[in-house]
Each structure stands twice: as C-alpha cells, then as structure tokens.
Amino acid sequence: MASVTFEGVGKVFADGTRAVDGLDLEVRDGEFMVFVGPSGCGKTTALRMVAGLEDVTEGVIRIGDTVANDVLPRERDIAMVFQNYALYPHMSVADNIAFGLRMRKVPKTQVEERVKEIAGVLRLTELLDRRPRALSGGQRQRVAMGRAIVRNPRVLLMDEPLSNLDAKLRVQMRSEIARIQGEIGATTIYVTHDQVEAMTMGDRVVVLRKGQLQQVDVPQRLYENPKNLFVASFMGSPSMNFVQARLERGEGGLTCLIGGQRLSVPDSVPARRALEEHVGRTLAVGFRSEHVQDAAIATDAPEERRLRGEVFTTELLGSDLLAFVEIEADPVVTAEVMEVAADIDDATAADLREEAARRRAPIVGRFDIRSQARVGQSIEIVVATERLHFFDLETGLAIQAA
Hints:
Elements: E1 4-12, E2 18-27, E3 32-36, H1 43-51, E4 58-63, E5 66-67, E6 78-81, H2 93-103, H3 108-122, H4 137-149, E7 155-159, H5 167-184, E8 187-192, H6 195-201, E9 204-209, E10 212-217, H7 219-224, H8 229-234, E11 241-250, E12 253-258, E13 261-264, H9 272-275, E14 282-287, E15 292-294, E16 306-316, E17 320-328, H10 335-344, H11 346-358, E18 360-368, E19 378-383, E20 389-391
Parallel strand pairs: 3-8, 3-9, 6-7, 7-8
Antiparallel strand pairs: 1-2, 1-4, 4-5, 9-10, 11-12, 11-14, 12-13, 14-20, 15-19, 16-17, 16-19, 17-18
Helix pairs in contact: 2-3, 2-4, 3-4, 4-5, 10-11
C-alpha cells in the first residue's frame, strides 16, 4: 500500500475552467479518505488526476515516494471502481474478478486461489459461476470491487460507486464497503456528493468547494466544529439552521438579538471568550435540528432559551417529528449557504430569498415524537444555546475558541 500526497495541485481545463485550486493534502497509508462536496466542486477531477486520467496543471501528486505526474496510468498500480459496474456480461463472476490477473499472465493456480480469497471477503463464493445479469445491483457492485482489489493495488479509487443503487441498498453497501476496506487495508479515496456516505464511511473527510479544500477532519469533528458557513451548511441532514443575530452584552452576559427575540449565550459555548471581540456586530448564528425542541415538551426550559414562531410544515419520521418553523428574523443568505441550498434543492434558494425579503427565517427542529406541533400553529421552540455556532457574515469563517 502507499500514501497519496497532493502538493499545491491545480487543474485548469482547456476552456479556462479551474476545477482544482492549490490542493494540499496527504491521504495516509491504509486510510479511507472521502472527498465530498456539491456538483462541480472538483472531487472527481482530483480523483482522476491520481488515476492519471487527467493531467496535473500545477503542483505534484505523489503515490508513496514517487512523483506520479508523468507516470502512465497502467504503471501507477492503482485500481478504480466507477458508478457503472462495467462488468463483462458474457463472463462469469469468477472470470470478471480474475480478468486483471490473467491479463498480467499470473499463473492459473495463483489466479484461482486469489479469486477464491477475494470472493470470501466479498461474500460472493456462492455466486462465482453466475453471469452479471443474474445478480442484484449490490452483488454487481461487489464483483466490480473484487475485480479492482484482486491484484492488491497500492491505491483504490472509488467514484460515486453507490449512485446507481436504491436507497435501502445504498445503506447496506456503505457498511459493506467500509468492512471490505478495513479487511484489505487498501489506501482508499472515495468520491461522493452524499454527506451521509461521507460521515458514515470515512476515516477522514475532505470537504471541497469550487476546487478548494474547505476542511479535512474526522467526521464527528467536521460536524461539531465546522470551520466556515459552507461546511456547517453542507455537513448534516437536515442542514444546520442559520439566523442573523446582533451580539449584545446585558446584565446577565452575552445575548443574541434575533428579530425582536433574544437567546442567551452561556459561558459553556466553546467560542464564548472569542465572542467578546464581536459584541455589537451582526453575526450568523447556527444550531442543529437535534438541538431544537418543542417547548410544550421541554416545559422547564428558561425563557432565555426560547423563540416564538409558526409551524409551516411537519414530517413524521416514526422515531421523531421534523417541524419546520418560521420565526421573525433575517435568514442567512450568503453565497456559501445559498450554494448548498441550490445544490440540494433547486427551489430552496428561491424560498430563502423570499423569506429574506419577508424577514422570516426557517428553523428545523427534530422534536420528540410526543410533540403535538401542527401546521399553522403558533409555537415556542427551545434551543440548546450551549450548542450555538457563530460565523462572521463577511468572511463566512467560524468564530472559534483560540
């Protein structure tokens, strides 16, 4: 196996489009690294440069200790798994898996042993004699993986490998791919636009936007400590709630003035000391849906943690209730937030602009299933103010503890 290192890597296409811009990153030996971001962020281009399918315009890509920029794709000792399975329909599962070894003139007995070993890892042993048309989508994807990993490549590249599967099968295959990668220990770069896949599969996650690296970290730290508005809005489902708030100092300490309402800023907020420099300014305040509750359930919550609004829709999820509440406040409609909204849902960007004009901010709460919140109802919500995030509206950067 080998590490993969990007040193100031850039890619500019012939029409002048800059797809990747100054990428500095090390994928460690044996690591499962996920590249995630909206369409057009450069994640697939970065992957294809590692594979040698795209030339590097600027910088250096190293595979192990070798500069790979001018190394032919077939000489890089990497393997790729694509969105489409690209299996040979006339060949059996065993022959599809063995194809790469046979092309390299590996002795027949070694090929048979290796195919048997890989089939065991991929749970394909009982299917080796079947043709691809007799397999399910998930089985075909495992065969494609088998063909890629059978020759022990130094690096495994995976480009949206689950995009053609239905939702239930995608969930199953996420855990399967993570298990397989853990067993074979291959250095893996996995590209996806799905942040749920990124959160559940990667040892570390790289978030890209417009060809630039926004943040790289383990999934939980990305979720809990986003470095900017883009990462905060992209990572998480539902997306983080944002409102504009003026930070003020009162007798009880710092407060957020949101429209005509206030939330306290307790001392337990990680950025509490750093916020002292921003008193009197209007900031973007963010909080996750799981940190919003129906005040009718959280009856003992103090007034300084409550906001009033009106329910405009609900989604019953069985285990809990997603309640979408409008409050009187200015929503955050920066380029970073709008880019994520437009990528997820074309109508969402227009909705946000309309809400901005009406000075109404949408809040999503993941309510206890006992909540009786109904559409059109006036409601009080309780915010876990110790979990508030603060961002500079001009730079989009998070205000964090030093």
